[in-house]
Amino acid sequence: MSELVAIRPPQRGLPKSDKPHLRDLPLRQLQAWMAENLGGAPFRAAQIFEWLHRHRVVAHDEMSNLAKADRERLALTSRIEPLGVDVVRIAGDGTRKLRLRTIDGQAIEAVLIPNEGRGFTLCISSMVGCSLSCQFCATQTLGFIRNLSTWEIVDQVYRAQDLLVAHAEQARLAWVPRIVNLVLMGMGEPLHNFVQVKRALEILTDPRGAAIAGRRITVSTAGLVPAIERFAREGVADEIGLAVSLNATTDAVRDRIMPINRRWNIEQLLAAVRHIPQPKRRLLTFEYVLLADINDSDDDAKRLVGLLEGVDAQVNAIPFNPHAGSSYRRPSAERIARFVSIARRLGQPVHLRTPRGDDIGAACGQLALEEATPCT
Fold first, then answer.
1. Cβ atoms of 302 and 342 closer than 8 Å
2. What are the φ and ψ backbone dihedral angles of 313, each rounded to 5 degrees?
3. Rounded distance, CA 207 to CA 214, Å?
4. What's the pLDDT at 2?
5. Terminus of the chain with fewer CB atoms < 10 Å: N or C?
6. Which of 362, 368, 370 is nearest to 142 (CA)?
7. How far apart are CA 218 and CA 43, in angstroms?
8. What is the pLDDT at residue 37?
9. Nearest Cα to Cα of residue 366 among 191, 158, 142
10. In the chain, domain spans
11. Rounded to whole angstroms, how far apart are CA atoms 113 and 93?
């Protein structure tokens, strides 16, 4: 079991290169880089941005409407190589887990979850490992290797969409399913990698690129209060949803299962959350992982409703997903149903999350890079 510290330092920094990775740059920064390094008409930057983020090219030569000389200069002065795809596993319910490889050899995971209607929800990572020590989460056992760069966050979306294209072609589908919802709930604490995550969101929501609507994106946090305040102050919360991983109704329990609570307790966390602007038609989300005999009592359900009084929020109740090395257990179906029933009866909207991809270690809290044979 890892040391119970609130926030762990990274073992290394972001990889350095003498050439910028162009998918690191929002359009305004790409325009500035082009003007300084290559010159040419300003519209060239917009063309290149579309190649990178709408068409998802992985080599400079694929930018077919640029002059050959421009492509050659770009190749000499910049990088656009993608993440590697090591393993793709497919669960019985259609969930797909991708193990991706960074240029410096680090492994991360992303999960494609089929929706009941059209399209997929994609869960992506923001770190290699995690800087926090939430005891019920498998990712924390990896330690904290490093943050992901902007392009490494962005490119998870593109590798996943390319996978959907390949599977559609293989199955001869009439249309290619798309990623319609994006959640930053994979490996890592997104708000502890705030600068890179914010820039990735700017790129992914740009209408000239992937054009994912901000209202379709949710960022999860375990409770870094200063970063939550920054999330609101810098306007990210105006479009992007926030999901707060609460998981306890008393400080004594939350201190034990989520050591971040020792830095910022439940009262401080909820005070910060109450100042977040809430866009129309969108509820704030609180995630609550149900752990047998830890946080699943009738009193916990009642206290949960009391804590969230006056907050326009939905609770996602998540039955614990077991993983190797964990001593925690999933509550019985009866206990889960009673917890949810009590909270609903007292007026709190609760959605009971159905485990997705738990047979391949892809469900909430299970991302731990276990060795596996690819499924195709």
1. yes
2. -145, 155
3. 11
4. 43
5. C
6. 368
7. 31
8. 86
9. 142
10. 22-77, 84-360
11. 9
Helix axes 333-345, 298-307, angle to 10 degrees: 40
The pLDDT-based confidence of 266 (bands split at 50, 70, 90) is: very high
> Which residues are annotated as catalytic?
109, 364
**300, containing H or E segment:** helix 298-307
Residue position matching structure tokens 């910028």: 20
Query: So what's the pLDDT on residue 76?
Result: 95
Q: Find out whether 198 and 232 touch, Cβ atoms under 8 Å.
A: no
Helix (H) or strand (E) segment spanning residue 268: helix 266-273
Say if residues 270 and 299 touch (Cβ distance below 8 Å).
no
**pTM summary value:** 0.94
Residue 360 has pLDDT above 80, yes or no: no
Q: Which CATH architecture has domain 22-77?
A: Orthogonal Bundle (1.10)
Count of H-run helices and E-run strands, the chain: 10, 12
For residue 129, the surrounding DSSP H or E stretch is strand 127-129
pLDDT exceeds 70 at position 105? yes
- The predicted structure's pLDDT at residue 323: 82
DSSP code of 15? P
**Which of 279-288, 308-317, 328-337 has the lowest average pLDDT?**
279-288
Residues 6+ apart with CB under 8 A from 315: 285, 286, 287, 288, 304, 308, 343, 348, 349, 350, 351
Token digits for 178?
A: 């798309």
Q: Tell me, what's the pLDDT at 305?
A: 98
| Alpha-carbon gap, residue 235 to 258, rounded angstroms | 27
- Is the four-CA dihedral 323, 324, 327, 329 of positive or negative sign? positive
Structure tokens at 231: 């999330």
The overall average pLDDT reported for the chain is: 91
